[in-house]
């Protein structure tokens, strides 16, 4: 049996060739399949979604650390009492947002924080390798924000944070 596939955004065609019977069977599945929107940063920039970076320094897409693939988003470099934010607003269905984060900072003083609609969901500091987290999301227009902020004194580790492989609850 020989199997051939031609996949488009609107249709999926599967061609089955049964060599012993010399019969060709075509199956067509109409409609479209959209995988869940995942931000992997693999395009090498922030063009996949309408990201907004703000604060003392912009977030960047980098290949120096990544959970999967080649790229992740890295918090902008900030000095004492500084902060940097990466924000995205989407129309969501009820579900979960999940993502991986890595942080290398002064424990208990410099933090990566995650917010939904301005409400802090969690925070991380110190040296934590890539870890997946998820949070419930209500249907409606939602703003997701990651911030990295420093206190007023010393630094530790790489003094930054990364995020990668974000799965958004959108239809």
Overview of this structure, please?
Helix content is 0%, strand content 54%. The protein is mainly beta. It has two domains: 1-33, no CATH class; 38-167, Galactose-binding domain-like (Jelly Rolls). The strands form three sheets. Strands 4, 6, 7, 9, 12 and 14 form a six-stranded antiparallel β-sheet that branches. It has a five-stranded antiparallel β-sheet with strand order 5-8-13-10-11, with no helix packed on it. Strands 1-2-3 form a three-stranded antiparallel β-sheet, with no helix packed on it.
From the structure above, extract its key features:
2 domains, five-stranded antiparallel beta sheet, single chain, 14 strands, mainly beta, disordered N terminus, Jelly Rolls, 171 residues
Architecture blueprint of SSEs:
Elements: E1 2-7, E2 12-18, E3 23-29, E4 38-39, E5 52-55, E6 60-62, E7 72-74, E8 83-92, E9 95-104, E10 111-116, E11 119-124, E12 127-137, E13 140-149, E14 160-167
Antiparallel strand pairs: 1-2, 2-3, 4-14, 5-8, 6-7, 7-14, 8-13, 9-12, 9-14, 10-11, 10-13
């Amino acid at each position: 049996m020989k199997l051939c596939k031609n996949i488009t955004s609107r249709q999926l065609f599967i061609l089955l060739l049964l060599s012993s019977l010399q019969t060709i069977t075509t199956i067509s599945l109409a409609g479209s399949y959209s995988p869940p929107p995942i931000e992997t940063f693999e395009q090498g920039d922030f063009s996949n979604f309408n990201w907004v970076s703000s604060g003392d320094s912009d977030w960047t897409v980098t290949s120096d650390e990544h959970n999967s693939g080649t790229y992740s988003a890295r918090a902008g470099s900030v000095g004492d009492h500084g902060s940097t934010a990466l924000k995205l607003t989407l129309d969501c269905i009820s579900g979960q947002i999940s993502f991986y984060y890595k942080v290398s900072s002064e424990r208990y003083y410099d933090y990566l924080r995650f917010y939904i609609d301005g409400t802090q969901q969690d925070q991380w500091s110190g040296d934590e390798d890539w870890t997946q987290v998820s949070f419930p999301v209500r249907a409606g227009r939602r703003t997701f924000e990651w911030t990295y902020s420093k206190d007023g004194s010393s630094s530790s580790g790489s003094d930054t944070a990364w995020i990668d492989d974000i799965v958004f609850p959108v239809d």
